[in-house]
Amino acid sequence: KIGEQQVTAPYEISRVVGVDISVTAPLTQPFSGLSYYSFREWSDRGDRQHVVSTPIDGGEFVAAYRLIITDDFPVFQEWNIYLPALSTEP
Fold first, then answer.
1. Is position 23 within any domain?
2. Who contacts 72 (Cβ-Cβ below 8 Å, separation ≥6)?
3. pTM for the complete prediction?
């Protein structure tokens, strides 16, 4: 989610440099009957929901997930959502 808008990654937006915008990654993503992806972290180390400021040189924010198998023990695997979203407008 970018601001109040639900989006599907990859998603790209243009903003004026220095504009703050809220980004929110889903806590979980379904994978199969016995497993799901769980949010791990954003590429900028921000919380699952946090505010980012449009960088001067554009930017990319990536939400990383780990695979959780709900059987007897969890297995972890990274999964990234690419959000090359915050390009800048002069």
1. yes
2. none
3. 0.65
